[in-house]
Amino acid sequence: QLQLVESGGGLVQPGGSLRLSCAASGFSLDYYAIGWFRQAPGKEREGISCISEGGDSTNYADSVKGRFTISRDNAKNTVYLQMNSLKPEDTATYYCAALLFKLCLFKASIYSHWGQGTQVTVSS
After folding, report:
1. Per residue in 59-77, pLDDT tens?
2. Residue pair 50/33 in contact by the 8 Å Cβ criterion
3. pLDDT digits over 13-47, tens only?
4. How far is CA 15 from CA 28, 60, 117, 122, in A?
5. How far apart are CA 49 and CA 71, in angstroms?
6. In this structure, are strands 118-122 and 10-12 parallel, antiparallel, or unpaired?
């Protein structure tokens, strides 16, 4: 069964850090671009970061640029999202998704595999 599983979410104070993981099972991420999306209550799902198949190209939404870093370890079949300087407005459910394509895009509808999401809450 093809599956993506996110982990690493939790409650953190403003200014804190978290590292999210996206682990694949049942398939290899080697040929997939990976995107991270988030959705806050009452808001649309937004793409915040993505990494190309080879890991040589990354994109970030303006809202997280300079604070979040995406990386991948194909040997572990896992993609990471390091989130620093977290703000209350980063509170959301975070999802990873896989796209069978070399380059990454923020268009959620083209991603074929999705994880179940992990909750990130930034609050004092």
Report:
1. 999 999 999 999 999 999 9
2. yes
3. 999 999 999 999 998 999 999 999 999 999 999 99
4. 34, 19, 22, 9
5. 10
6. parallel
